[in-house]
Amino acid sequence: MDNKLEKIVKTLQADFGAAVEEFRGEAHVTVPAGRIVATLELCRDQLGFELLDSLTAVDYWPKELPRFHVIYLLTSVSQNLSVAVHVPVNGDQPEVPTVSGVYASANWREREVWDMFGIRFAGHPDPRRILMPTDWEGHPLRKDYPLGYEEPQFTFNFDEIDLRKPSPKE
Amino acid sequence: MGVEQKLGNMGVVTTTLEGMVNWSRTSAMWPMLFGLACCAIEMMSAQAANYDMSRFGMELMRPSPRQSDLMIVAGRVSRKMGPVLRRLYDQMPEPKWVIAMGDCASCGGVFNNYAIFQGVDELVPVDVYVAGCPPRPEALIHGVITLYEKVKAEKFKDLAGKYG
Amino acid sequence: MTQIEEVSIEDIRHLVSERAINGETMLLNMGPQHPSTHGVLRLLLELDGEIVVNCIPDIGFLHTGVEKNMEAKTYQKAEVMSDRLDYMNPIGNNLAFVMAVEKLVDLDVPPRAQAIRVILAELTRLNSHLVWIGTSSLDLAAQSMFLYSFREREQILDIFELVSGQRMMTTYLRPGGLWRDVPVEFEAAVRAFLKIFPKRIDEYESLLTKNPLFQDRMYGIGKLTREDALSYGITGPILRASGVEWDLRKKRPYSGYEQYDFIVPTRTEGDNYARYLVRVQEMRESVKIIQQALDKLPMGPVRSDNRKFVPPPRSEIGVSMEALIHHFKLWTEGFPAPVGSVYNAVESPRGELGVFLEGDGGPKPYRIHWRTPSFENLGVLPVLAKGFLVADLVAIIGSLDIVLGDIDR
């Protein structure tokens, strides 16, 4: 890890009790959900991480505690550094405070995480689905949501699948 | 035959009414701009200077469905876009045809999942399927010529019930 | 099949101003099928006459479920889907994915493969900027630019077809290098293209840059400040036109970019005109990079010989037992990746294209997230369009250069 990144990671560890991991030269810092807004404000104002690259989540089902990890990828343009902040979230009623007040790009990214994973963001100004239709049920990127693929039609089951296939009403 | 022998060199041609109607339909068929994804870029290439589609009557692409006869569905149709596609098809005046351009419009293509309609023929009746991912502009032009052959072979008695 | 989204005023009450509720301003739908929205983008506009008061983008009409679908395929098969995300930049998408996989499994890439990757990535950048200049000029009714830029584009697509057999979605870059070596005609074809292209850029500039009509429509429209750009997560030519010199090819060089000498064009005004100038200058710099890469092209293998991840050539299978076993294992099962997550970003023509890849010890990605630049770039549209006319909105969307496949994934 870079020297500058070491110092930054140590600051985060000291202030927020974060756990740190390193893999392939990248730093991964784990912070509890209640402290995430304070962590990101510190990163933006004092540590110089101006750009929120992306905000996404990973689903570790069937593990329930924690089931999700919400991941914030931060980049510092002035110092040319990057760090990934992980927030573990439990499976039942997953909720994380919103950071759309800290970084404006988080607004749409949090809507996407709500749409795809079902994680609520407390205090978000516009909690609507963004990619799926508004009346869609379910959260597609969860591991217990099926892929929903069409069965291939071989000669032995051609006719029975043909009957079930949707076709247009003229 | 006799009429043509006598009047042919005066610039008179005889044909059937069906032939003339079908010929006029194929000579200036205007497609509706319905490019969704990557196939749209190849459709634009086919419209541009190298593989000119205006040679085949498709001088311009009309964005408005009320002014077009052909809908070239170029690209993948997602669940949110499906009702929009059907509404635009319903807004086109008869006679209308549909070309499903590319693999995603024909059968779902590379994407076999919850988000993409497996073939646009789940929504609208398709006349010609053009394969490829994306199909070359020449393949699209071949698809258009196949459609023209289909239109030229249409008979009035088949269409009587369709528009009824 | 669901009905069309009829967005009632209640759903968007928190986003529109008070004047929309009592009918003083008009709510207009610039629908998913529209000639100027560069794809299936729906904009809900609140208009006071012709002036845009609020602009609310509605996306998701091209949602393909790529992230979930890639979880069901092995790393080699998932690459095919990566081409089709940002369809103007297929080799760039391949590059981002393949480099993330190489980072995850710690695989080396020979220098010849890196140089050819750079040449193809820069040709793709030219391809993308040509389509941008053609279509955004078409929106401003400069129709001849469309025909000229597509004429040049055909030459680039001929080079791609020469190399891989496919014009657009090539899937030519593979983990460990390239699919196969370039044919002997490649160098001559690229040099022939580079000979004519700088004069063509001069031709485009003579048509547009000093044109008073073009300047009227682009100068001072859609100003983006530096602070807003960083807060909204903007990267790429839009960020560079707002005064921040951030280009991943210079700051975090990958695939051998540090060997080539090029500048990163930056401007400070942040309006449409600055973005136009930045992209045109980027086209010239790309030509320089391709020239240098072609001059310095080293000889050697084009794919790593780590047989745990790269399949052996067919000739070896007949004589070596290990080669047969590796081939069998790679084709039936795929190669396993370690547990852990990496994030790898490349500079696409639109900005920072990143892949967040998490492996779980198996042959399929456990989670893949595409950080696509157009998602953030579109997010700043409501800020840019406030107070301008609808015609300016069309010019702003053109200069943001968004691709809907990138946004909706």
Name the features.
heterotrimer; A: 170 residues; alpha/beta; Beta Polymerase, domain 2; five-stranded mixed beta sheet; two-stranded parallel ribbon; 7 strands; 25% helix; 25% strand; C: 409 residues; mainly alpha; Cytochrome-c3 Hydrogenase, chain B; three-stranded antiparallel beta sheet; 18 helices; 8 strands
Counted by DSSP, the helix tally of chain C is 18
CATH fold-level topology of chain C = Cytochrome-c3 Hydrogenase, chain B
Distance between the termini of chain C: 21 Å
Main sheet: strands, sense, barrel of chain C: 3 strands, antiparallel
Percent helix of chain A, as a range, is 25-40%
Which percent range fits the helix content of chain C?
40-55%
Beta strands of chain C, count:
8
* CATH topology title of chain A: Beta Polymerase, domain 2
Total E-strand runs of chain A: 7
Rounded mean pLDDT of chain C is 88
Biggest contact? A-C, 40 and 45 residues
Beta-strand residue percentage of chain A: 25-35%
Helix/strand-derived category of chain A reads alpha/beta
Shape of chain C: globular
Class of chain A, according to the CATH hierarchy?
Answer: Alpha Beta
Strand order of the largest sheet of chain A: 1-2-5-4-3
Number of helices of chain A: 4
CATH superfamily of chain A: NADH:ubiquinone oxidoreductase Nqo5 subunit
In short:
The complex is a heterotrimer of chains A (170), B (164) and C (409). With 170 residues, chain A is of the alpha/beta class.
Descriptive overview:
- The complex is a heterotrimer of chains A (170), B (164) and C (409).
- Chain A starts with a helix and ends in a 6-residue tail after the last helix.
- Chain A is elongated and about 65 Å long.
- Chain A contains four helices and seven strands.
- The two termini of chain B are 35 Å apart.
- In chain B, α3 packs across α6.
- In chain B, α3 links the parallel β1 and β2.
- In chain B, strands 1-2-3-4 form a four-stranded parallel β-sheet.
- Chain B has 164 residues and is α/β, with parallel strands linked by helices.
- With 409 residues, chain C is mainly α.
- Chain C contains 18 helices and eight strands.
- In chain C, the strands form three sheets. A three-stranded antiparallel β-sheet of chain C has the order 1-2-3. In chain C, strands 6-7-8 form a three-stranded antiparallel β-sheet. A two-stranded antiparallel ribbon of chain C has the order 4-5.
- In chain C, β2 and β3 form a beta hairpin.
- The longest helix of chain C is centred in the N-terminal third of the chain and has 29 residues.
- The model of chain C has no long low-confidence stretch (mean pLDDT 88).
- Chains in contact: A-B, A-C, B-C.
- Chains A and C meet through β3 and α3 of A and α2, α9, β6, β7 and β8 of C.
